Amino acid sequence: MPPPDGGKGTGTDMASLLLAVIYIAFISLGLPDSLLGSGWPAMHADLGAPLSAMGLVSMIIAAGTVVSSLLSDFLTRKLGTGLVTVISVLLTAGAMLGFSFARAFWLLCVLAVPYGLGAGSVDAALNNYVALHYRARHMSWLHCFWGLGALVSPFLMGAALTGESGWRGGYSLVSYVQFGITALILLSLPLWKRPASEERAGKSLTLPGTLRLKGVWFILIAFFAYSALEATAMQWASSYFTESKGVSTEIAAMLGSLFYIGITLGRFVSGFVSEKLGDRRLIRIGVCIIAAGIALLALPVGSDAVAIAGFLVAGFGCAPVYPCIIHSTPANFGAEHSQAVIGVEMAFAYIGTTFMPPLFGLIAQYADIAFLPLWLALFGIVLFCMTELLNRSAGKKPVLP
């Protein structure tokens, strides 16, 4: 199936307009992701909940994303990607607006259910649509736009916390943005093409059927390992600088964004070379750069500069891995199966993101946070082995443009 941005005339104009809408939709994916963490110090005090209670809200959201990711194949075949995106963004917008009115912690837990259900299905549906219809560079740049959304929301929350509205104003502001994006996507529905995999509504692949596809377990374990590595590095970077390097908490808070900055810059850069190098080669290059970054972290030197470079380099290496795995899914498993496979990939990613960072927290608490490089290296090795096993399993299948 040729990508819509490869044609001429009116078709190209419509495809470009739709692509702009999808870029905005990816910003909407990132907006909620860092909102809870940035607002929680004020939220838990206002609601009378313990500091640790954020973990429960996060796990409920994650459970919702796993469920909706697994249902994404069925939903997109029935409704189409455009309508699934509208409904999903509307769910998250409504949940965030509900957060702004919540006066009790239990209500946050209830609202976390639609919050997560909306996030998972739209993530899987949009990633599959772009993998089928657009070139590899757009997958990298779209995930860069997700990063912009995740970067903006803490600043919006911070601005709200300095005013009278407090954290409730931060959630209501982001919900209004989400409602606006919902309206924009709704207006764009005539532009959305339904790929053949969506039109065959009666042939939705079940979860057992998806798990029986040749080589699928390699990519699922690889996605789990990548997500565990990324989330652990992001969440524990500040603590690593404080506990292992003796950096002050104020400076460590700023240094904690290094890994995230590396990913955002890396995805911008990888968009320019993705079509020349191809998905497989970019994944290999990314894993090698990750290894270099982890090696810098593991060096027994007292200089903070080496650790700073390590997080930046590791983040830069992570940049192409996630987009390239998604973009190569139709080539590895067939366009007719890609939505089902990407849905399960998203579910495994959320499982790795949810459970592996807290598990490392136990290691840091009862052993030493200095084990962080070793923990990251473990998942890096699993990622490399699984992607290479997938390449052997898939053979020399042509990569979709």
Describe the structure.
The protein is mainly α. It is 81% helix and 0% strand. It folds into 2 domains: 189 residues, Growth Hormone, Chain: A (Up-down Bundle); 185 residues, Up-down Bundle (Growth Hormone, Chain: A), CATH 1.20.1250. It is built from 18 helices and no strands. The N and C termini lie close together (9 Å).
As for the number of domains, it is 2
Computed structural class: mainly alpha
User: Secondary-structure element sequence?
Assistant: HHHHHHHHHHHHHHHHHH
**What's the CATH H-level superfamily name of the largest domain?**
MFS general substrate transporter like domains
Please give the number of β-strands: 0
**Briefly, what CATH class of the largest domain?**
Mainly Alpha
Count of DSSP H/I helices: 18
Portion of residues within helices? over 70%
Architecture (CATH level 2) name of the largest domain? Up-down Bundle
Oligomer: single chain
Described by the principal axes of the CA atoms, the overall outline is: globular
How far is the first residue's CA from the last residue's CA? 9 Å
Q: Let me know the average pLDDT.
A: 83
- Uncertain regions spanning at least 5 consecutive residues: none
Strand content: under 5%
Which fold does the CATH topology of the largest domain refer to? Growth Hormone, Chain: A
Radius of gyration: 21 Å
What does the main sheet amount to? Answer: none
